[in-house]
Amino acid sequence: MPDMDIAPTAAQAATEIPAYNQSATPADLLIRPRNRNFASAVIDRRRWVDGDPFASAFFNALSVTFPEGEIFFIDSLKKFRKRVPPKLQREIRAFIQQEAIHSREHHCFNEHLKDCDFDISRLEQAISGVVNRIRTMPEHAHLVATLCIEHITAILAAEVIANPKHFENADEQQRKLWLWHASEEIEHKGVAYDTWLHMTKDWSPFKCWFIRCSFMAKIAFGFTKNRARGVLDLLRQDGISGPRAWLGLAHYAFLGKAPFRRTLWPLLQFFKPGFHPWDIDDRALIRLAESEYEAAIMAEVDAGSERPDSLVLDKTERIKKVA
Ligand SMILES: [Fe+2]
Ligand SMILES: [Fe+2]
Fold this sequence. Notes:
Elements: H1 10-14, H2 53-78, H3 86-115, H4 121-135, H5 139-162, H6 172-187, H7 191-199, H8 205-237, H9 242-255, H10 259-269, H11 283-302, H12 315-322
Helix pairs in contact: 2-3, 2-4, 2-5, 2-8, 3-6, 3-7, 4-8, 5-6, 5-7, 5-8, 5-10, 6-11, 8-9, 9-10
The protein binds fe (ii) ion (FE2) (2 copies).
The site of one fe (ii) ion has 5 residues, from helix 3 and helix 6.
């Protein structure tokens, strides 16, 4: 990868997106870490999503990937922070803060899963194996792997916010955790991609397209296979195995709430030449998730319940700890 340590002028920074790419991150997008804390949000029901074992296992399997996966994303972007224009540097910094807090909160969620007698060690080993393999590759591979997984995360995030059925009758604290995480995934969905565009701006459009699409094909396949394995492992621990587990998972993924079917088209858009994550402007979903979250907090306050301590902790101190 060419060395690009030269700080750009303001004019260069404004045109950091190559000419062949018509889309870009919205100029007025502000990525702001919201320091939520769900450490005390114990999981009351093993099937915390509406009593649904398949939906619960799906989100549990996803959560197990986050602590290590998001630390990997942070490490990937940190390497490039000093080599990009100032606006993108600020966005990488905010990205790092958001992902560090997500990693911390999902670590707590995963500990609560263990308290529910789920053994997540095999799922953790699987994600460690994938991350460690990518870490042995050159640094541009870390970046392209990150932007691919960030795209998958962002389209799942948009789906769970846009379709309230996913967390209908889910335990309230867990629903808030997932909606908060989803909203920030949408907010920073362009950061890894813009870093890639900047770092490869001297590459041919075909080379950029070919590399990112090759990675995405491999990662999307591996992501689907490994999550399915993880879900089936958790379902087995929940007393569901064999054809009932397979068929139930397939029904959930493609026919029922259908997170896989409903994200297939946004996934395929990634393969379009000139694609940019902000081709889909879903900032309204961030506001929707936030409004739901704030409404739930206000309802608790109105009902006379104490506001959780975690929400009144000094934000600056907590963000400092994870940055
Ligand atoms: Fe995240
Ligand atoms: Fe992310």
